[in-house]
Design a protein that fits this description.
alpha+beta, rod-shaped
């Protein structure tokens, strides 16, 4: 069985395909017997290197920082504007109701 891997310029394995194909520029086929134990369970992009046609752990691997989900300044401003528009809309709706009530009272003689 053959596995396909893609390596970057530093020979780090950035993706692999156990079955089927992958798209990329630096694709290499690796025989099953050349895949180290635990490769599939431990795989992370750039965690392994292809060195002298052997897959080895990358001694310089640093786990990427997890993405932050905090909103950007732009998202905060958009939320503030949306909130203000909603509040303004509710104020206008309240004023429209009050105007309608006053118009009704005027038309019915204040009863």
């Amino acid at each position: 069985m053959v596995m396909k891997i893609e390596v970057n310029d530093a020979d780090e394995i950035v993706t692999y395909a156990k079955h089927g194909d992958i798209l990329g520029d630096n694709l290499i086929e690796i025989q099953e017997d050349k895949i180290p134990d635990g490769f599939y369970e431990n795989y992370k992009s750039r965690f392994y290197l292809l060195k002298n046609n052997e897959i080895v752990e990358n001694p310089n691997y640093v786990a990427p920082e997890p993405p932050t989900d905090s909103p950007s300044n732009l998202e905060k401003r958009v939320a503030a504007i949306s909130y203000q528009q909603m509040a303004d809309s509710q104020t206008i709706s309240t004023l429209q109701k009050q105007n309608a009530q006053m118009a009704y009272q005027i038309m019915t003689g204040g009863n």
